[in-house]
Design brief:
The complex is a heterodimer of chains A (about 600) and B (about 160).
Chain A (H helix, E strand, L loop, with lengths): L1 H6 L1 H5 L6 H49 L2 H20 L1 H28 L1 H7 L4 H13 L3 H9 E12 L5 E6 L8 H19 L11 E4 L2 E6 L4 E9 L3 H23 L12 H5 L4 E3 L8 H37 L3 E7 L7 E8 L5 H7 L7 E8 L4 H12 L6 E5 L4 E7 L2 H12 L6 E8 L1 H15 L1 E3 L12 H21 L2 E8 L7 H21 L6 E5 L17 E9 L7
Parallel strand pairs in A: 8-9, 11-12, 14-15
Antiparallel strand pairs in A: 1-2, 1-5, 1-6, 3-4, 4-5, 7-8, 10-11, 13-16, 14-16
Helix pairs in contact in A: 4-5, 6-8, 7-8, 16-17
Chain B lengths: L1 E9 L5 H10 L12 E10 L2 E10 L18 E7 L3 H18 L5 E6 L10 H9 L4 E3 L8 H14 L1
Parallel strand pairs in B: 1-3, 1-4, 4-5, 5-6
Antiparallel strand pairs in B: 2-3
The chains are: A alpha+beta (about 600), B alpha/beta (about 160).
Bound molecules: guanosine-5'-triphosphate and magnesium ion.
């Protein structure tokens, strides 16, 4: 019991006393108390002992109890919670530094998921390209002067970090600045300056000095929100389109802390040189994130059908339009290449309907309906107004020649391209030939005409008869107006030929005149000779008249002026000679 | 590249905004639009082969109602304090501002006193006073935002001073 007495309050506190008298007195006076002290001592001792024994088994006991039921954890949890709360309140920094790594990795995972969903954004804009929504957005893009993908972005992005700045807190100068892809760069320095100014202003207006919690954490600017994560040396500002999730703020915090740790020294004595902060860009890049709108509903069946019908209509309209304009082109080709037509205007219309054409057209050109039907087209595919012209195209000129000249059978016209000349040849009426020439030259486009190939078959007879008649000499007996017997028949022959000639020239419209020269030989007086020669000419004339001819005849008695002077009496000087004279209607001789 | 924050200070309507506009955008307007708060502009220049990004904080002018917002001064690496040659009191104001700003930013902060509107005919600040200012070691440049006199020199001078620090 030595340990008991050592531990006893009383005995330990007073010097040892061995006097039995005193002991007795003590027993008399403190009897009750002594008992109680002894009792206490015993209790204490047993508690100590039991604590010791519990401590030996507590771990095993907890394990055993937990495996049996929940009572222990239920009993413990309020205590643990309270003490944790207490500790958090007192030393938050310790806890944050413990928890931070876990939270950080959680955020990283969520951001990497966001990034992978961003990869889908290209296919997303493709997906929207041909939907009604896509078409609407395309129109919107054209109106707003933005790219289509930007508009898709605007509609599909819940939020997107567009720009991020690392800013020197004191001066508001930009240390580093990153722009997300597809975002217009704003002037970093001006923005950061304004941001700093706004913050300074806000702090000035609303906050008591040193109260960090009241400074601005975000600024709303239309579609944009600027999130700010600050520290005394530098702050991060992050321009976000749409509503960013809470994680972004945490990410900003984490990034800022990383940067502060790495760049602390440079920041402490920053004098405007931002080259060291190039290395901060990768940290900033980590903050770029975005989230897309969930595609809510499937396109309904009816919309699909409608879109399908629309597409079919559109495609068939397009096909028809292409077919139609193809048709039109070949029609225009037909008209354009047809002689006598010159197309000067073709007006196409958006909705397929008859085209409006304006053309120069020769009256002799093939009529349009005929032309079109020849090409397999109907006349009402075009509506054409014509301006009359005289075409100089050979085929048209040819037609005119044919029609205007009333080409007789056997006469042909050829066009000689090299000399640009028209050649008319064949057998034709003499009158027609003379007319043809005049008429042909009145046709526009006929500049060179060759009619040397034209001939009237009767012309030869005409020439032959004239020749024969003129070659005939009828000799007369001496001193009279009777042909010598051998030449008697000549008188008949010549007058027959003359009658024939007269008929022919009448038919051909040629004027015919006959001149008869009468001759006498040197015998006899001159006066007599004149008379005789006159009378001899008269013989033929009388004969012709007798045959009913009405050829105008001129008769000349030449006397003996053409007689052979060597012989007085000469048979060959007593004769008549005939000369034929043709003239056409206009009086021109030939 | 080096960035430098420069503050434009001075009484109201002395031409702070005009000087910045003339320097940055080469324009001048006779119209007076009083600056509210602060307006930030910037200009990239090359000084001795160093690219300098001047970020100019054109602050609202001091008058009886508005005092200079000292928060805007934080981090300034130099400042220009402007007075109006045609209004004597703006020089007193400018000197007062200069002193208090130097107190905040440090005695060695590069600064220049600009005497603006030197194109005007009625000048209220005598040459002798200007000479005495220079004698006290204050850098003084006469400027006219209107005629673009001394504007480039002033900003170049402050830039050079800041780079020398
Ligand atoms: N003649 C002349 N007028 C000037 C000059 N500079 C500025 N002004 C005029 O002075 C007026 C004030 O110019 P601001 O540049 O707006 O003055 P400020 O100092 O910015 O004024 P606060 O912003 O109100 O402090 C304007 O009407 C300017 O046209 C100058 O060099 N010459
Ligand atoms: Mg101003």
């Amino acid at each position: 019991m030595s340990s008991t007495s050592e531990n006893s309050v009383v005995s330990g506190g007073s010097p040892p006393n061995t006097d039995p008298e005193v002991d007795k007195f003590k027993e008399l006076v403190f009897r009750g108390e002594l008992d109680r002290i002894e009792e206490l001592e015993r209790k204490l001792d047993s508690q100590l002992r039991s604590t010791k024994s519990v401590s030996d088994v507590i771990a095993e006991a907890v394990v055993m109890r937990s495996s049996k039921d929940n009572m222990l954890s239920a009993a413990l949890s309020p205590i643990v919670e309270n003490s944790l709360q207490d500790a958090l309140k007192k030393r938050p920094q310790d806890f944050i530094s413990i928890i931070f790594p876990i939270v950080g990795s959680l955020i990283r995972r969520s951001i990497s998921e966001t990034f992978s969903s961003m990869l889908g954004s290209f296919s997303k804009s493709l997906e929207f390209s041909f939907s009604p929504k896509g078409i609407k957005w395309r129109i919107e893009a054209i109106r707003a002067g933005k790219s289509f993908s930007e508009i898709v972005m605007l509609h599909t992005v819940v939020y997107r970090v567009e720009q991020i700045y690392l800013i020197h807190s004191e001066s508001g100068l930009v240390l580093s600045n990153l722009v997300n892809k597809g975002v217009h760069d704003r002037d970093a320095d001006m923005i950061s300056g304004m941001l700093t100014a706004i913050q300074d202003f806000a702090k000035d207006c609303f906050a008591t000095a040193g109260d960090e919690s009241s400074s601005l954490n975000s600024l709303d600017m239309g579609d944009y929100t600027i999130y700010i994560e600050r520290s005394p040396l530098a702050y991060l500002a992050c321009v976000v389109r749409g509503q960013a999730p809470k994680e972004l703020q945490v990410k900003l915090r984490e990034t800022l802390e990383l940067i502060l740790a790495k760049f602390n020294d440079v920041l402490q004595d920053y004098r405007g040189d931002d080259s060291p902060f190039v290395a901060a860009a990768p940290y900033l890049e980590d903050c770029f994130a975005e989230q897309l709108v969930e595609e809510k509903k499937k396109i309904s069946f009816v919309t699909k059908i409608l879109v399908g019908i629309f597409i079919i209509l559109f495609v068939s309209a397009l096909t028809y339009k292409i077919y139609h304009s193809h048709r039109m082109n070949s029609i225009l080709n037909i008209i354009g290449s047809e002689p006598g037509y010159i197309l000067i205007d073709a007006e196409s219309t958006l909705i397929p309907k008859p085209w409006q054409l304006v053309a120069l057209k020769d009256a002799f050109a093939v009529p349009l309906p005929e032309l079109l039907s020849r090409g397999g087209y109907s006349a009402d595919e075009v509506r054409c107004s014509f301006i009359p012209i005289d075409s100089r195209e050979p085929s048209i000129v040819m037609k005119k020649l044919q029609q205007k000249l009333e080409l007789p059978l056997g006469v042909t016209i050829k066009y000689d391209l090299d000399n640009d000349s028209y050649h008319i040849s064949g057998l034709a009426d003499y009158m027609w030939i003379t007319n043809a020439k005049t008429i042909a030259y009145t046709i526009p486009g006929v500049d060179n005409l060759d009619i040397s190939g034209l001939a009237d078959p009767r012309f030869d007879v005409l020439k032959r008869l004239k020749q024969e008649i003129e070659n005939t000499v009828i000799r007369f007996a001496r001193g009279g107006e009777i042909p010598i017997s051998t030449d008697q028949h000549l008188l008949d022959e010549v007058s027959e030929k003359l009658v024939e000639l007269e008929k022919l020239t009448n038919a051909m419209g040629i004027a015919l005149t006959l001149t008869i020269y009468g001759h006498a030989d040197l015998t006899g007086t001159e006066i007599r000779n004149y008379a005789i020669s006159q009378a001899r000419a008269q013989v033929l004339a009388a004969k012709l008249y007798a045959k009913g001819s009405s050829i105008p005849i001129s008769m000349y008695g030449m006397g003996s002026s053409f007689a052979d002077t060597t012989e007085l009496e000469d048979l060959d000087s007593r004769k008549i000679e005939m000369r034929i004279h043709f003239a056409n209607k206009s009086g021109i001789d030939f | 590249m080096v960035s430098k924050k420069v503050c434009m200070l001075g009484a109201f309507s002395v031409g702070k905004t005009s000087l910045v506009e003339q320097y940055v955008r080469s324009i001048f307007s006779d119209q007076y639009l009083s600056t509210v708060g602060v307006k930030i502009s910037k200009k990239l220049i090359t000084l001795d082969a160093t690219e300098v990004n001047l970020v100019l904080w054109d602050m609202e002018g001091k008058d009886e109602f508005v005092d200079i917002n000292m928060a805007y001064l934080r981090g300034a690496m130099g400042f220009l304090v402007v007075a109006d040659l045609s209004r004597r009191e703006t020089l007193d104001e400018a000197l007062q501002i200069r002193n208090s700003v130097l107190e905040i930013l440090g005695e060695k902060t590069p600064n220049i006193l600009l005497l603006n509107k030197c194109d005007l005919e009625t000048l209220e600040i005598p040459e002798t006073q200007i000479a005495s200012l220079e004698a006290r070691g204050i850098s003084v440049i006469k400027t006219s935002a209107k005629l673009n006199i001394g504007v480039n020199e002033a900003f170049l001078a402050i830039s050079t001073k800041m780079l020398a620090v």
